[in-house]
Amino acid sequence: MLDGDAIEAMRFLDRAVVLPDDGGEALFARGLLLIGLGMEADAVPFLQSAIDQVFPSAERLPKRLQLATMMAGGNRYAVFQEFYDGFSSAFCVAVACRSIRAGEAQGYAFCMDRLCAFLGWLRPAIPQVLRRDEAINGASYWSQANLGHQFWITDDRVAADAAYGLAKADAIARGIAPYHFNCGVLVWLPLKTAEALDADFVDGAPQVVGDVAWNLPSVARDWPELVISVGCDRGYFRYFPKLLLSIRRAHEASGSQSRFLVHCHVADASDEQIRFFSEIGALIETSYPHMRLVFSHGAPAHRERSYYTCLRFLTLPTLLQTYDCGVLVLDIDCILHEDFFANIRQSFEYKFGMRKYNFDDEDHQMGGEPWSITAYPLYISNTLIGRRLASFIVRYIEAAYDPGLVTNWTIDQSALGQAHRMIAQADPEKSILNLARSKPLVRFPHEFGSKDAFLVSGGITTLEAVLESFRPLAP
Question: Which fold is adopted by the domain 212-473?
Answer without folding.
Answer: Spore Coat Polysaccharide Biosynthesis Protein SpsA; Chain A (3.90.550)
